């Protein structure tokens, strides 16, 4: 069985991610759960773990959860992060532009080049699409879009001028400001997107009800474990909210509202 925690796993904080998994694993074993992986696995792509038949535990973005994995994965809880743009288990994205570019409003980005981490990202695509819809902008707003493959690369593309803007997950942004501030120095925050449920912890949907309850108790136990406090501070985790699949229906509703304004995609 494998456990994956790749979503916010910057190289600078991988030791803390390992420690956080160790705290989670201890808590799950204390709750009597069998088959808990001793270590967490790492994958070249964050999404590689989500469809594996040997998956025990993972963190996933809400958009691919609802679009691709709603029948095979189930939510057991959602971390609450100490980052600007987060409120409990909810999060938003910062819309960045090159510092000194003279861009003072979202409308000024019409026809410009967007860097986006991927077409199935809530923070990089769907949240920005929701903001455009909220402000009354229609389809084909951007002149071009670069698929960067990751938020950190999107920041670099805006820094270099290869892209004019990007929407960056506010937790990733906070982690970069803390651990790699030099990478953020040449860009600035223009605005923020509407918020949405944050990146949940998930397990296979076939998990029985008794084990689901034990896993949720384990999350509560782990976030209170003094032995994991330093790792949690490094990762900006301050609590875990026991959200369920029902809370993520909102991701579908966000997309539906944007589509009603003709914004089916940013690509």
Question: Keyphrases for this structure?
Answer:
12 strands; D-Maltodextrin-Binding Protein, domain 2; 8 helices; 34% helix; alpha/beta; 267 residues; 2 domains
SS content category: alpha/beta
CATH topology of the largest domain: D-Maltodextrin-Binding Protein, domain 2
Biggest sheet statistics: 5 strands, mixed
Shape: globular
Radius of gyration, in angstroms, nearest whole number:
18 Å
Percent helix among the residues? 25-40%
CATH domain class of the largest domain? Alpha Beta
Q: Give the H and E element order.
A: EHEHEEEEHEHEHEEEHHEH
Please give the CATH architecture of the largest domain: 3-Layer(aba) Sandwich
Q: What is the overall number of helices?
A: 8
Cα(first) to Cα(last) distance is: 36 Å
Assembly state: single chain
Calculate the mean pLDDT score and round it: 96
Strand order of the largest sheet: 1-2-11-3-12
CATH superfamily of the largest domain: Periplasmic binding protein-like II
Q: How many strands appear in the DSSP assignment?
A: 12
């Amino acid at each position: 069985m494998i456990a994956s925690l790749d979503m916010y796993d910057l190289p600078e904080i991988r030791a803390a991610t390992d420690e956080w998994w160790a705290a989670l694993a201890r808590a799950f074993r204390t709750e009597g759960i069998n088959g808990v992986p001793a270590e967490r696995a790492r994958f070249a792509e964050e999404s590689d773990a989500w469809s594996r038949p040997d998956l025990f535990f993972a963190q996933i973005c809400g958009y691919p959860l609802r679009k691709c994995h709603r029948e095979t994965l189930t939510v057991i809880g959602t971390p609450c992060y100490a980052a600007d743009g987060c409120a409990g288990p909810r999060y938003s994205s910062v819309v960045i532009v090159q510092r000194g570019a003279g861009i003072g409003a979202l409308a000024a980005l019409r026809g410009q080049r967007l860097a986006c981490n991927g077409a199935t990202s809530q923070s990089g695509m769907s949240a920005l699409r929701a903001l455009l819809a909220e402000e009354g902008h229609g389809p084909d707003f951007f002149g071009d879009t670069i698929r960067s493959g990751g938020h950190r690369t999107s920041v670099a593309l805006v820094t270099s001028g290869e892209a004019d803007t990007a929407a960056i997950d506010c937790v990733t942004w906070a982690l970069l400001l803390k651990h790699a501030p030099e990478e953020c120095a040449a860009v600035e925050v223009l605005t923020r997107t509407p918020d949405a449920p944050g990146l949940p912890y998930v397990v296979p949907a076939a998990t029985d009800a008794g084990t689901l309850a034990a896993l949720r108790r384990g999350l509560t136990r782990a976030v209170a474990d003094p032995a994991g406090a330093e790792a949690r501070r490094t990762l900006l985790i301050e609590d875990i909210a026991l959200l369920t699949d029902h809370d993520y229906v909102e991701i579908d509703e966000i997309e539906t509202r944007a589509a009603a304004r003709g914004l089916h995609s940013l690509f």
